[in-house]
Every structure is written in C-alpha cells, then in structure tokens.
Amino acid sequence: MKLIIKLLLTALAVVILSKILPGVAVEGYGSAIIVAIVIALLRLIVKPILVLLTLPITIITFGIFLLIINAFIIMMADYFVGGFAVATIWWALLFSLLLSLFQSLLFSLIKED
Predict the structure, then answer these.
(1) For residue 2, is pLDDT > 90?
(2) Which residues contact 30 (CB under 8 A, 6 or more apart)?
(3) Residue 88 has what DSSP assignment?
(4) Which of 18, 53, 72, 75 has minimal Cβ neighbours within 10 Å of its Cβ?
(5) pLDDT of the residue at 113
(6) Which of 75, 79, 71 is nearest to 100 (CA)?
(7) CA angle 6-41-32, nearest 5°?
(8) What's the pTM?
(9) How far apart are CA 79 and CA 74, in angstroms?
(10) Which residue has better confidence, 41 or 112?
(11) What is the pLDDT of residues 57-113, one digit of tens each?
C-alpha cells in the first residue's frame, strides 16, 4: 500500500514540476503515473549498473557525477514514455533535483508504521 502511495505522490510531483518548468511536459495524470512507475523501475534496475560502470569518475568528482546519472535516467524515461517530454539534459538535471526535493517533502508526510 505504501508503494502505491509513493508512486501517486511521485506522479503528483511530476505534474507540479511539468507546470513549473517550461522544458518539461507531461500530457496528463495517466502519463504522470506511468512516468513515476518508469522512473522507479529505472532507478531500481539501471541506476546500480550505471553507478558501478561510472564508479571511477564518481569517485573523482566526489559523487557529483551521480547527478548526471539521475538526469540520464530522466532522459531515458522521456524516451520510454510517450506522454512525457524533457527538452534537454539540463532540464532533466533540474527536473531530477527538484523531483528529489519534492519526493522528500511529500514522503515525509507518510506516517511510519
């Protein structure tokens, strides 16, 4: 149940950010839910592989390269979801940062069992 609530809160954050950022567009709430699911799956499956492959550059940049990996995941979600569009990698980077901020704020509202 908590996973569904987190996905819906992420979809809400995606919709809010698409209204705020001019370089990000989502067609509707259904597309936002699909974007939330795709981003969650990409973070679960692809991100650990990318982190492992780019470990030397991540160490050299003291972890800042992880921001680029997150932006790349957003660009991959743009590729996979038809109703979601991100203009450039810079908009994906800003979207990724703001999405993480919104998620931390929204997830703090969920009560722990």
Answers:
(1) no
(2) 83
(3) S
(4) 53
(5) 60
(6) 71
(7) 55
(8) 0.90
(9) 9
(10) 41
(11) 999 999 999 999 999 999 999 999 999 999 999 999 999 999 999 999 988 888 766
Sign, Cα dihedral of 25, 82, 91, 110? positive
Task: Return d(Cα 19, Cα 25) in angstroms, integer.
Answer: 8
Enclosing H/E stretch for 89: helix 89-107
Structure tokens at 73: 């995941």
How far is the C-alpha of 42 from the C-alpha of 74, rounded, in Å? 9
Tell me, letter by letter, the H, E, C secondary structure of 38-79.
HHHHHHHHHHHHHHHHCHHHHHHCCCCHHHHHHHHHHHHHHH
Is residue 88 packed enough to be buried (19+ CB in 10 Å), middle (13-18) or exposed (0-12)? exposed
Whether the pLDDT of residue 47 is over 90: the answer is yes
Which residue is listed with tokens 């979601």?
84
Q: Enter the DSSP assignment of 86.
A: E
Longest distance between any two alpha carbons in the chain, whole Å: 40
Sign (positive or negative) of CA dihedral 35, 41, 44, 45? negative
